[in-house]
Amino acid sequence: MAYDEVLAERVRERLEPEGVVAKKMFSGLTFLFQGNALANLYDEGLMVRVGKERTAEALEHPGARPLVMRGKEQRGWVVLAEETLDDDVLDGWLQWAMDVTAELPPK
User: Residues in domain TfoX N-terminal (predicted)?
Assistant: First the structure.
């Protein structure tokens, strides 16, 4: 699991007070709120849940690109370039992901 440990700690610091749990899965570190994934840190960066209806909006932001799995774009998620994630930007993305994930039924 080759993800950035420094970024992992930055994400943990922000999400754990909100009741988010970090769990190693999906070849990386997944952050879960009420059993639903809201972010995943892996070798290609940080993917965050943005909601299917807001994927296009999310992709307009600098450093955001589509999440592609097995050649297919996954709506509802984007991958963020780590070099664009200063504290304010990271806070904004994580809040967005929390807001979307909080609307899902708990698992």
Answer: 19-98
